[in-house]
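Here is an idea for our session: we take a single protein and study its fold together. To get us started, please write out a protein record for me. Start from the sequence, derive the backbone structure tokens from it, and show both lines together. Go ahead whenever you are ready, and we will take it from there:
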Amino acid sequence: MAHEWELVQSGPPDARRTVLLLPGGMCSARSYAEVMAEPALAGIRLVAATMPGHAGAPPPEDFSTDEYARITAELAKSVQADVVVGFSMGAMVTYEMVVSGAFSGPVVLLGSSFSPPDEPTAFRAMIRLGSVLGNLPAIVLKKGVPAMMKKAELPPDRKEALKADFALNNPSDMRLGLQAYLRWLKRDDDRARRLCEAGVPAWNAPKHSPLHALVPDHEQDVVEDCPHVRVVTLPGEVFFLPNEAPKAIADVVVEAVAAI
């Protein structure tokens, strides 16, 4: 059964190219507002989609990464996406679409994580506690994200809008989604190598935040040596990449579109 998606669109409906934008965990399609407003992307059809089970969107039947990749690939085909951009958990889904062969166009991975050390230890511990404490850790995380938003360099009205979207999250859906995400991180299947072997043009922009570790040396070496993958360093130390570095992201998206 086809999933019902919450979409936000901009740009010419009959544009020559279409880019699908996947937000991070607990974020909605509206989190891409800053990127979608960038002049460099004015001639491109942009379709942002709230991930199922996030920011109040209907949950998927199965929270596994494989299922997310499957239903998102169907969406990409439905909107005729030429490029897929994913942030954080959206990058995870984008990655799985590529390595599974479900999507073969250029991709942009923002704030990507390939293994457990790429995510903060405390964050992983909170996810694991969900197996014992139920929804309580998810509730704590939900309350903590707006506090992190205070440091973001955004106008007050945008901060309030993003906080309102975070408040839509269902703690039970959060727990199931985060636990599936952690299981995916723990899978040792040499993700950097698989991304390279997929052979699609890819731009990888890890988070540069005190909350996040650098990817392991092996993965970094593989990615940097891969002819299809470009490692992108976005300016500053930010957490909410689509909101705080929209121009840099727009420039990368333009490159990805040009690679078609």
